[in-house]
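INFO  loader      accepted 1 record
INFO  loader      residues=390
INFO  predictor   begin
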Amino acid sequence: MKIAVGLSGGVDSSVAALLLKQQGYDVFAIFMQNWNDSTGTLHGDCEWEEELSVARMVAKKIGIPFHFVDLSAEYRKRVVDYMFAEYAAGRTPNPDVLCNSEIKFDAFLQHAQSLGADMVATGHYCRKESFTDADGKTVYRLLAGSDSNKDQSYFLCQLNQEQLSKALFPIGHLEKPEVRRIAREADLPSAAKKDSQGICFVGKVDLPVFLQQQLKAREGEAVEILRGFYDGLPRAATLEQMAEPIVYSRADGRVVGRHDGVQFYTIGQRHGLNIGGHREPLFVIAKDPAENILYLGEGATHPGLFRPALFIKESDIHWIRPDLEMTPGQERDAMVRIRYRQPLQKGRLIRRKEGMYILFEQPQRGVTAGQFAAWYTGEGELTGSGTIAR
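INFO  predictor   done
INFO  writer      dumping tokens
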């Protein structure tokens, strides 16, 4: 079997390539250049030339062929343009999820296959299993990585069965310290390299500067909503009401500062507000893109930060396991994650004609439109996901 490894220059993909080589597979490496614009990128973080150099040295050390492919045009069109559009609309996207479904396991996969690859391997901390159903069809399961501190299955929540059929995750059964140990013992050039941070293939960025490439700054008011505001609100009685975010007006609070545009902020954000005079930190609790008003609440337990439910439009529901797809009227208990590294939360999936509601056992902090909600079984299998509409 011929396997193409997406070799990024990091330790995880390096060890993935090494293990496959040791297992006797016909392995070759491909380095993807997906971004070459340094605007907003913090110098020294994830510069692609350095990554390329390390990846090339790793391939030479392991003894596998090395290829380079420039997918920056596809990345800009299918990930970055989407990202700009979402921020412009007042939502907060997750480009890393799209990077995997649109680039690594689509554009990159197609390029790998053109070079003769049967499968594509990455350094993700997740696992894949399969079984044969009653009709003799192979069904693929996407499972959380064995290292709960590094599990990256959430980033793959938009993959489909066809993509999973071509995917390998060689380090998904390992914990990070073990991966580091293997790299050190093999004297891989990436053994001591720090984990990459920031936007997939863009790197660590000053987000407002990065977004200002296409989104203009527009000064607006920052309005604080006091806790007493919620005392007079009627209690949400229906599922639809529980999934509906509170809509604030300028008259509901007091102006405490200014900002450069609501598109540069996200729900739950506390840094970069530059507003003093409070005992506890201020957090973003809501945004009004039309009026360009940023609503803030004081303290990590501010009631405006929490929601008991969320909603995903019917068109945005995605099933990794189509055989488990729910139809309108069905309900199902699940474990849910609404952001990377968040511990799984108990919730109930409630399928309606208009879409999917997720009702949580405990109210969730920072439910953010544009992000992905991913649902798992109790065994840690990721079966579906969707973009949060509200």
